[in-house]
Amino acid sequence: MNKKKRIYSVLVENRSGVLCKVAGLFSRRCFNIDSLAVGETDDPTVSCMTIVSSGDERTIEQIEKQLNKKLDVIKVKTFEEPQSVSRELMLAKIKYNKGNRREVMEICEIMKAQIVDMSKHFMMIQICDAPEKIKLLISMLQPMGIVEVARTGTLALSKCSANEQTE
Predict the structure, then answer these.
(1) CA–CA separation, 38 vs 48, rounded Å?
(2) Which of 27, 36, 57, 103 is 20 to 30 A from 79 in CA distance terms?
(3) Calpha distance 35→51 (Å, rounded)
(4) Per-residue pLDDT reduced to its tens digit, 27-65
(5) Helical axes 57-69 vs 18-28, angle rounded to 10°
(6) What is the spatial distance between Cα 77 and Cα 95, in angstroms, rounded to a whole number?
(7) pLDDT per residue over 16-31, tens digit each?
(8) Three-state DSSP state, 90
(9) Helices marked H in the chain
């Protein structure tokens, strides 16, 4: 089976119960959600759900068809990772000591992560970057002692193109 990752940018009506309906659609059909982020758009009556899911070609097509059938869904755009700009926010609490403090700070500098809080034994690191960079930072910090991690999930928009239509 050739598994593909797909990003769905779903504009929905901003009202209670919509997220539950969309999540239920995935649950009932045993489609996996790799990442889910939801927030208001520039119009407070409309929210954008960015859903990252993976599966074979048939599954990918089914997800798009099922999303388009939902009454609360205004518009569904799908794209693959190379066609988009993706970002994720992560906060990570790291346990450090005198021996590895400099190394943690150097990793942060190289990865363009910021130290946003600090105590005698812990550092909180923030990074906003592509999901692959977040995974790389986690793997680099793992040996130091990650205490806690919070991630937003992927946000994505299709890349700007010269022939894009203005509305």
Answers:
(1) 6
(2) 27
(3) 6
(4) 888 888 999 999 999 999 999 999 999 888 888 888 999
(5) 150
(6) 41
(7) 999 999 999 888 888 8
(8) strand
(9) 18-28, 57-69, 101-111, 131-141
